[in-house]
Design a protein that fits this description.
With 324 residues, this protein is α/β, with parallel strands linked by helices. The protein is 31% helix and 23% strand. It is globular and about 50 Å long.
């Protein structure tokens, strides 16, 4: 919504259904060449990542990140950039025909679900917990469940909790927080596997950016191979586009290959908000514009729901479309 108000030029990329997926060349032109900002909506994270993996869009997003495009989104559209996401993708009504599901299930059935940790694109080496301060429809607090996930996890990466009206901003190897309402923020959560305890500290908005390596154990950003872990979570008939990984590696620009060889951090620009409505808040919206270095950036909107919902598109892009 905010982007439409800015009168930005906006294109929609819909890969939610097989008959809506453009050719690989068309997707590459849109995502890697044309766009200044890639805006991913909230929705079903698991469905989106599997679709991106199947179509090869995950590889193009990684390439766009290393070419300096702004990657942004809220909720599911925030968590997809991380190594993993604390997600409500298994919520019974988090599907295309949500109203039908609600009509078929009683209240107890609708509450009978668990949060799940799923693999993301691996650009930010942490677990993302959007809607950090909220409680799910299963009456489980997201922050408390995320702490338990960290304790039980085999890896040692921290979690970054993002309040609904805040956003984590990554610029190269620097991290900062934008607060939409002046109070919401982000939180670093770390688990002690020996004691079974967690500790977390809020990041202070509007302070100087801090080196990302001070927040997380920085590792080489993962490629699409990182998404193989998604297969552990669902049974799917998707035909994974394995051949695209080899093709993309051959076509990758020299800068990408150099970064990979050196194990360095690509010059990435990411804004991950706790929910999509945060983009209606001037501080968050204006930060995206600043990151793009354009007065009216060209936006590619990518839906992460299990279908391409027009209402989500209108909400996510309005301010950018009406920018004058």
């Amino acid at each position: 919504k905010a982007f439409r108000e800015l009168e930005c030029e906006i294109e929609r990329l819909d890969v939610s259904e097989p008959d809506t997926v453009p050719s690989m060349d068309d997707m590459r032109h849109l995502v890697v060449d044309w766009a200044d900002v890639l805006l991913c909506s909230g929705g079903n994270t698991l469905h989106a990542l599997l679709r991106w993996k199947e179509t090869g869009l995950d590889l193009l997003l990684k390439e766009a990140a290393e070419n300096g495009k702004v990657l942004c989104g809220g909720s599911a559209g925030a968590g997809c950039w991380f190594n993993s996401i604390h997600s409500d993708s298994l919520r019974p009504d988090n599907v295309k025909n949500a109203e039908c599901v609600k009509n078929e299930l009683d209240d107890d059935d609708l509450m009978n679900w668990d949060f799940v940790k799923i693999s993301g694109l691996g650009i930010i080496p942490a677990m993302c917990v959007p809607h950090f301060e909220t409680t799910g429809t299963n009456e489980v607090a997201r922050s408390e469940h995320a702490e338990q996930v960290l304790i039980e996890s085999e890896d040692n990466i921290p979690a970054i909790g993002i309040d609904e009206d805040a956003a984590l901003v990554i610029e190269g190897n620097k991290a900062s927080v934008v607060s939409g309402d002046g109070e919401a923020t982000c939180h670093i959560v770390v688990a002690d596997k020996k004691t079974g305890e967690t500790s977390h500290a809020p990041l202070v908005p509007q302070e100087e950016p801090v080196p990302l390596e001070e927040l997380v154990d920085l590792t080489k950003p993962a490629t699409a191979e990182h998404l193989e872990a998604l297969d552990e979570h669902v049974e799917t008939d998707f035909a994974i586009a394995d051949n695209l990984l080899e093709c993309t590696a051959e076509d990758a620009p020299a800068s990408e290959k150099n970064n990979s060889n050196q194990g360095g951090v690509p010059d990435i620009k990411i804004l991950a908000a706790g929910r999509m409505k945060a983009f209606q808040m001037p501080a968050v919206f204006e930060k995206v514009i600043e990151l793009s270095c354009k007065e009216q950036p060209r936006i590619v909107y990518i839906g992460t729901a299990s279908f391409d919902r027009t209402d989500k598109y209108n909400l996510c892009t309005k301010a950018f479309r009406e920018l004058e």
